[in-house]
Amino acid sequence: MCRFLTAAWLVLSVNAPATERQLFEAVEPHMGTLVRIKLYAAGEEQANAGFRAAFNRIAQLDSELSDYKADSELNRICRTAVARPVEASADLFEVLAASQKLAAETGGAFDVTLGPVIRLWRQARKDNRLPSAAALREAARHSGYRKLHLNPAGRTVMLDEAGMQLDVGGIAKGYAADAALSALAQLGIGSALVAASGDLAFGDPPPGTGGWKIGVDSLDRPGGFTRVLELCNAAVSTSGDTEQHLDIAGIRYSHIIDPATGMGRTGSMAVTVVARRGVDADGLATVVSVLGPERGMAFIEKQPGVAALIAAGRDQMAQVVTSSRWARLACPAPPNDKH
Ligand code: AMP
Ligand code: MG
Questions:
Q1: Is 32 left (phi over 0), alpha (psi -120 to 50) or beta?
Q2: DSSP state letters, 94-155
Q3: Which long-range CB contacts under 8 A does 296-300 form with residues at least 24 apart?
Q4: Residue 327: per-residue pLDDT
Q5: What is the pLDDT, as a whole number, of residue 313?
Q6: Mutate to test the pocket of ligand 1, among 119, 120, 255, 295 (most ligand atoms within 8 A of CB)
Q7: Which residues, by Cβ under 5 Å, contact ligand 2, an ion?
Q8: Mind listing the pLDDT tens digit for each residue in 237-275?
């Protein structure tokens, strides 16, 4: 059984009728997690070429977008783009542009300049104690999405001050899943899925089927994947505190930061978002985690073609709500704006 992070997606076995194409599967570590690819190919040679191209693309994105790797493009830009515009790669610029759009639409609830605050909480989880108020105040002083400036004309990035740290951990894996699917499509492999832990992107359906069947375990119904979706040319992301959190004095602080307070969000929830592109599903799932169930669901309802399932509360006590489009999810036509 392959479980994905947080709300635990399961890719159900596909009973495709016998065709010329066969199912191949590979897993590699990338972006601090395991990335799984399933694809249908004419034979081993085509499958291996596909795996190489897709995993290489993800490795390239990791070298651009990682905040863990000191020499990543993102970290270099944090050092060099202080008070002066620096040209960014197309990938980094696109991820930052999508992030700033979400920041503007959510009044800064989604904020990729929270790096200094996020790093404090990462250390706090290792040390098993809360970050100090003074350290949080200082980190928050160097954050704020209005201090990040993008100029599409020269594809440049500029930061207002030294000490800022970008962190695209809430959106990069979905972008990478899209990019890996595109790399496969360029080799003629259209029927594939890419799963970067909780961020999944689906291409064309498995041969002879209506879509990739995935089950969701949404915390309230343990022991069975009772909700099943059939998707293609779409993406699914989960976000929540099931995997990464800090428990102190009976309170669970998640790795999702509320920019208004600089604190890890409390009040357990897991959200699953379905969108056409991974970059959208991933970003929006994190947005809902920051906004909470009510404001998050209201935001989702405003997004064309997007659906969400939110489980608020822990385990069997979780209350599950779905957006109005959830019940109507079906296999859409291929998008024309893939990477
Ligand atoms: P996800 O699992 O996609 O929801 O992403 C979680 C990651 O998003 C965290 O580990 C942080 O790197 C990042 N993050 C945390 N809080 C925020 C926030 N308010 N806005 C944007 N990114 C965030
Ligand atoms: Mg996300």
A1: left
A2: HHHHHHHHHHHHTTTSS-TT-HHHHHHHHHHHHHTSPPPHHHHHHHHHT--GGGEEEETTTT
A3: 296/271, 297/321, 297/323, 299/105, 299/106, 300/273
A4: 87
A5: 80
A6: 255
A7: 170, 239, 282, 285-286
A8: 999 876 778 999 899 999 999 999 999 999 888 899 999
Angle of helix 172-186 relative to helix 44-65, nearest 10 degrees, comes to 150
List the residue whose alpha carbon is closest to atom 20 of ligand 1. Answer: 110
pLDDT tens column, 62-98: 999 999 999 999 999 999 999 999 999 999 999 999 9
Residue having the nearest C-alpha atom to atom 23 of ligand 1: 170
> Per-residue pLDDT tens for 149-164?
999 999 999 999 999 9
Among the atoms of ligand 1, which is closest to the Cα of residue 103?
20
- 289 alpha carbon, closest ligand: 1
Best mutation site among 72, 96, 101, 118 for ligand 1, i.e. most ligand atoms within 8 A of its Cβ?
Answer: 118
Query: Residue 86 corresponds to which amino acid?
Result: V
Q: Give the number of residues written for the chain.
A: 339
